[in-house]
């Protein structure tokens, strides 16, 4: 086994809040990321994902536990670590007054790269991000998806071994998300280690070799997307709606249909190896939902199972 590029043990971050007890945002996380791996932190708002990413990125100090990035402790080797990472923060922090190319160029200079290298890299990365024709456009004039692509390009200016991506596609339309996923796949193929946070389970399923499900600063489960689904959910899910008022009323009559039943405010989820058979079983009990859908289990179901809550609230 190659040495991990990131190793966190009992990582803790507490925030001081005036007039209140300290708030524990990250509550004892332990995980390792192998070189070239694509590792995800999946969790709802406030789970502690960005806080964890900031500690990995050596821009926020930890309160407890141990953390090694490329074998180095960020408390002692912050600048070294930062120079070897690429960072795509949750909020784009591009310079809106400068054009796309200038943003890349200046970021490279900030890393101490020679001017000639910065020019060359800026052109390469504009091509990688499919933004050549926007090279001279001011950042304020770019769309959200273009800004995100530019931020990723900027994060690559120093040829990082690890790229940290905090919610890379939040707020983007499906096409823009797919373009971004494609770019991230290419990076992965080149051997870049990706660490990303998301609350989109399809994104986690697409991009992550392995992930941890985080809630309230704690790891609820860890594994590949497929193994998490296998372990914590059934093969298929039958989703039925009887109408908002009737769902709770119908629920007691579902005993024995499927392996498990979850009643949500707007629908009932029946976990089963065979969704069509479960639907037939409902009909036999004279239960006729207004709508029904048989689908494969997803990470959303895993999350619901582990926390009792939906991932996107
Ligand atoms: N600087 C801060 N001071 C005090 N509390 C903070 C600070 N930053 C974050 N928190 C709190 O820590 C918790 C975790 O926040 P964090 O930003 O890490 O969550 P997240 O998982 O990234 O959520 P989101 O999906 O909304 O981005 C939240 O309850 C947040 O309010
Ligand atoms: Mg966040």
TrEMBL record:
It comes from the Bacteria. GO terms for molecular function: ATP binding. Residues 6-241 form the ABC transporter domain. Keywords: ATP-binding, Nucleotide-binding. Coiled coil: none annotated. SMART domains: AAA (SM00382). The lineage of its organism: Bacteria, Bacillati, Actinomycetota, Actinomycetes, Micrococcales. It comes from Microbacterium memoriense. This is ABC transporter ATP-binding protein. PANTHER family: LINEARMYCIN RESISTANCE ATP-BINDING PROTEIN LNRL. It holds the Pfam family ABC_tran.
């Amino acid at each position: 086994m190659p040495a991990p590029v990131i190793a966190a043990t009992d990582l803790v971050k507490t925030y001081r809040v005036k007039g209140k007890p300290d708030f524990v945002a990250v509550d004892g996380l332990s995980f390792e990321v192998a070189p070239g791996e694509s590792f995800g932190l999946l969790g709802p708002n406030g789970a502690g994902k960005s806080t964890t990413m900031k500690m990995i990125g050596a821009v926020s100090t930890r309160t407890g536990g141990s953390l090694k990035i490329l074998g180095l402790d960020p408390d002692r080797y912050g600048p070294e670590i930062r120079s070897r990472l690429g960072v795509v923060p949750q909020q784009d922090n591009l310079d809106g007054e400068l054009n796309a190319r200038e943003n890349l160029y200046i970021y490279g200079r900030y890393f101490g790269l020679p001017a000639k290298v910065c020019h060359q890299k800026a052109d390469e990365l504009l091509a990688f991000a499919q933004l050549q024709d926007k090279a001279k456009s001011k950042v304020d004039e770019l769309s959200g998806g273009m800004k995100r692509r530019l931020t990723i390009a900027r994060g690559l200016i120093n040829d990082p071994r690890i790229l940290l991506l905090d919610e890379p596609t939040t707020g983007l339309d499906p096409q823009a998300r797919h373009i971004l996923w494609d770019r991230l796949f290419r990076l992965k193929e080149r051997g870049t280690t990706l660490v990303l946070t998301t609350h989109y389970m399809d994104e986690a399923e697409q991009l992550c070799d392995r992930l941890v499900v985080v809630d309230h600063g704690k790891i609820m489960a860890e594994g590949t997307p497929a193994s998490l689904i296998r372990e914590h959910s059934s093969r298929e899910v039958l989703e039925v709606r009887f109408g908002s008022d009737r769902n709770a009323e119908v629920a007691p009559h579902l005993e024995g249909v499927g392996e498990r039943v979850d009643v949500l405010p707007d629908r009932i989820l029946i976990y089963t190896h065979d969704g069509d058979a479960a639907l037939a079983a409902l009909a036999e009990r004279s239960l006729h939902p207004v709508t029904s859908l048989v689908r494969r289990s997803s990470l959303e179901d895993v999350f619901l199972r582990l926390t009792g809550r939906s991932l996107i609230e």
